[in-house]
Amino acid sequence: MARQTEPVCKLCRREGEKLFLKGARCTSPKCAVERRPYPAGQHGNTTQFKRGRNSDYSSQLREKQKTRRIYGVLERQFRRYFAEALRKPGMTGANLLAILESRFDNVIYRLGLADSRPHARQLVQHGHFDINGQKVNIPSYSIKASDVITVHGKSKNLAYFREIQGYMDQRPRAPEWLEVNVGNDGIIARALRVPERRDVEQPINEQLIVEFYSR
């Protein structure tokens, strides 16, 4: 399975903003963007590098790359998502973001069950969650309205999930389209509806992505 292996702090520095790929480190003074707010490499902090970044194509490309990196999606899969969004009725950009938000790994992150999307992807791949009572270990699985997500039976006794139940109320609140409850039966989450444009957490200009693929 293809995956991103590049140091993730370099990705944030390349885009010039926090993509929140390393959990708590992104909100600490150790964040690479806070310490070195310019691209990595020999010419990252030079005037020559900065000069050629203002064209329409450059803006479109950077927005597309930023969005891909936020959700941990490689180029071929991202193109498939765009093609799917194009076929659906409604605004293509909003459809694309809804598809990305519905990814299983993103949902686990937005529920507060992981510190970052890469962490959520790892938890999903290791088979720690069930969807409607069936174990699913595919990060790109698309969550539908009324789907119920629970911790897999054998994973409930792991120290990580026992501890996380104790401080779920201290985690960031889940978005409006998701619901999570912690009780005697453990962690139970449900998708209340399909995600909408207003549910997207980070600032993304989806119109630039549409323009990039419409060239």
Describe this structure in words.
It is a single chain. The chain has 215 residues and is an alpha+beta fold. The chain folds into two domains: 8-100 and 201-213, Ribosomal protein S4/S9, N-terminal domain (Ribosomal Protein S4 Delta 41, Chain A, domain 1, Orthogonal Bundle); 103-191, Structural Genomics Hypothetical 15.5 Kd Protein In mrcA-pckA Intergenic Region, Chain A (Roll). 41% of the residues lie in helices and 10% in strands. A five-stranded antiparallel beta sheet has the order 2-1-3-5-4, with no helix packed on it. α4 packs across α10 (206-213), α6 crosses α10 (206-213) and α7 (104-110) crosses α8. The two termini are 30 Å apart. The model has no long low-confidence stretch (mean pLDDT 83).
Short descriptors:
215 residues; alpha+beta; Ribosomal Protein S4 Delta 41, Chain A, domain 1; Structural Genomics Hypothetical 15.5 Kd Protein In mrcA-pckA Intergenic Region, Chain A; 2 domains; 5-stranded antiparallel β-sheet; 10 helices; 5 strands; 10% strand; globular
What is the tally of helical segments?
Answer: 10
Q: What are the low-pLDDT stretches, counting only 5+ consecutive residues below 50?
A: none
Overall radius of gyration = 18 Å
Q: Overall mean pLDDT score?
A: 83
Please give the CATH class of the largest domain. Mainly Alpha
Shape: globular
- Trace the largest sheet across and list its strands: 2-1-3-5-4
Draw up the topology in text.
Elements: H1 8-15, H2 32-35, H3 47-51, H4 56-71, H5 75-87, H6 92-101, H7 104-110, H8 117-125, E1 129-131, E2 134-135, E3 148-151, H9 159-166, E4 178-183, E5 186-191, H10 206-213
Antiparallel strand pairs: 1-2, 1-3, 3-5, 4-5
